[in-house]
Design brief:
Layout lengths: L11 H8 E6 L4 H4 E5 L4 E4 L4 E6 L5 E5 L2 E12 L8 E8 L7 E7 L8 E7 L8 E3 L10 E7 L3 E6 L2 E7 L15 E8 L19 E15 L22 H14 E4 L22
Antiparallel strand pairs: 1-15, 2-5, 3-4, 4-15, 5-14, 6-11, 6-15, 7-8, 7-14, 8-9, 9-10, 10-16, 11-12, 12-13
Length: 290
């Protein structure tokens, strides 16, 4: 059954609040949490639902999405990215609403030739408009072992984490006219696909299909979040830990994000004067951690 479209109603936030079932969906089986969306046998759930693999070959990529929709929460996934020569490939982990005027919160992992670093691309969309990109390299090899990638989303801010180290904060600046995703429920998505027209060094390095299939590994998905239920009779349930509802950065977090952004940030839209010749976006004057 199609979900009701709350995004065009001034009463959307109220209606969604009524429809929210507050739950903690702790790490469980991918069979229970996710649906394969494309790629056929290129997407595999193994080990009793504990492991999920997405592969890309010259014919198709693959992907999955969460069975549930959420309105705010903390979303953790352990990933091990495509190893060796991953040039041209993109692995994703993101939240997105459905339909036009979508909201979206993105982690995208842009592959590279062997020995060169992955680029971690982040972006935030609200009502279909993005252009809020920040990009990073990493202080570790994301293909050698699993690492935990996290999106924390509440009504005040969005924080991107890797292994509980914050990379980026995107604050709610609606008061100065900056759209913020807060009324459209979102699902969790992941995919592995080919983007060699732009992903690696602006498209100069192409995918080497002799190295296919390209495989990314997933485990331990954790959604401590408001699950949106289509059943308006559903009740709010007690939840062990909802610290994410008001979570921000403490002094230690601010020190860590300064370290990441000073040493590993390679692009920030708030510094791109050539892209915004008529002036940087208004939120860029408010926080260095955007």
């Amino acid at each position: 059954m199609p979900q009701p479209d709350y995004s065009n109603s001034k009463y959307g936030a109220f209606a969604l609040t009524i429809a929210c079932l507050i739950v903690a969906a702790f790490a469980g089986s991918f069979y229970d949490e996710m649906d394969i969306t494309f790629g056929g046998e290129r997407a595999k759930i193994l080990n009793g639902g504990q492991d999920l693999y997405l592969s890309l070959d010259q014919y198709s990529g693959s992907g999955f999405q969460s069975k549930n929709e959420y309105l705010f929460g903390r979303f953790d996934m352990q990933l091990k990215l495509v190893p060796d020569n991953s040039a041209g490939t993109v692995t994703t982990f993101y939240l997105s609403s459905q339909g036009t005027g979508r909201d979206e919160i993105d982690f995208e992992f842009l592959g590279n030739s062997t020995g060169n670093p992955y680029t971690i691309h982040t972006n935030v969309y609200s009502n279909g408009k993005g252009d809020k990109e920040q990009e990073f390299h990493l202080w570790f090899d994301p293909t050698a072992a699993f690492h935990t990638y996290c999106i924390l989303w509440n009504s005040q801010r969005i924080i991107f984490y890797i292994d509980d180290i914050p990379l980026r904060v995107f604050n709610n600046h609606e008061a100065i006219g900056v759209p913020f995703p807060k009324s459209q429920p979102m699902k969790v998505y992941s995919s592995v696909w080919n983007a060699d027209d732009w992903a690696t060094q602006g498209g100069r390095v192409k995918t080497d299909w002799t190295k296919a299939p390209f495989t990314a590994s997933y485990r331990k998905f954790n959604a401590n979040a408001n699950k949106v239920s289509p059943d308006s009779k559903s009740k709010s349930l007690e939840n062990e830990n909802q610290a994410w509802r008001s979570q921000g950065l403490d002094a230690a977090g601010r020190n860590r994000i300064r370290w990441v952004q000073n040493k590993y940030m390679i692009y920030n839209y708030c510094n791109d004067y050539s892209r915004f010749p008529n002036g940087l976006p208004v939120e860029c004057t408010r926080s260095r951690f955007l």
